[in-house]
Amino acid sequence: RGMFEGCTSIVTAPELPATVLVDNCYRGMFENCTSLIQSPQLPATTLASNCYRAMFSTCGLTSLPANFTLPATSLASYCYYLMFSNCSSLEEYDLNIPNAPLLTTITYLFSGCSSLKNINLRNADFKVATSMSYFFNGCRSLTRLDLSYLNIPKVTNYSYMFNNNTNLVYMPLVDTSAGTNFNSMFTSCSSLQTVPLLNVSAGTDFRNMFSGCEALKEVPNLDKIKEIADRATENNIILANCPIRHLGTEKSHELYKKIQDYLLANNVEIMFDTNVVDLTVENNKVTGVKVQPSVS
User: First CA to last CA across the chain, in angstroms?
Assistant: First the structure.
């Protein structure tokens, strides 16, 4: 525990080949190692309580190794708690936890990562997690997030999840259908302009939810949403949270160009002002297209 804590001149971490960990074994191992810029690979498959707790907290991490993954198949309470908290130089992170479905608490995971601009959680399934409290707290470089793909049907605690994300302009749509605690979820998100329609039908604590959101122009009527949800429940109807992704015109040109370049690179001919009049089908497969010029 705390083996190299405060060793501010360490630049490179030693290899950590252990596959079976014990309680608190790597807890705070590199905490406050402000010159450490890259973490080692962590191949452990059997974890224990608090084993990675605050392991890299307040480090100088700027990136993670290529193909970095947390492959553990046996998890324990608070095993990843505060693991990368306050890594203020970390700009990108691709979270790869194959067995994330075993995690119930994922609080504070990136709290204080003030330089974090891009994060990919698509390889993490949090389907049994009940708390995401402080998950992105203080991530002041995030401007927008797409979290609509997250599988979090059991999360009840969203308190302080985006607290002090001062550059967050668009709030990500997340599945909040099981949420009860929304206390300070967006406190001090001073650049936040819009909020999607959230399902807060189970909510009980909304204290300071949007406190300090100076740029917020419009907020959905949460009381109305709750009223509709309650009426639906009374009639044995479930109010479903349906994420709708908005591309945004500022990104559409870039996306369409990538689609066109991909098609051309794969020998797809793009024809304009042309109508498809029939398809040639052989053995239940389309083998050709009959076209004719469109009539102006």
Answer: 75
pLDDT at 244: 47
> Quick one: tokens of 44?
């452990």
**Strand pairing report for 285-293 and 274-282:** antiparallel
Q: How far is CA 26 from CA 3, 56, 98, 286, in A?
A: 8, 10, 20, 57
Give yes or no for a contact between 230 and 220, defined as CB atoms under 8 angstroms apart.
no
Find the Cα–Cα–Cα–Cα dihedral 184, 136, 128, 245, rounded to 10°. 90
Q: What is the dihedral of CA 167, 186, 57, 149, to 10 degrees?
A: -90
Residue 109 has pLDDT above 90, yes or no: no
Q: Which residue has the tokens 């705070």?
A: 28
For 277, the enclosing helix (H) or strand (E) is: strand 274-282
Residue 105, pLDDT score: 72
For 294, residues 6+ apart whose C-beta sits below 8 A from its C-beta are 273, 274, 275
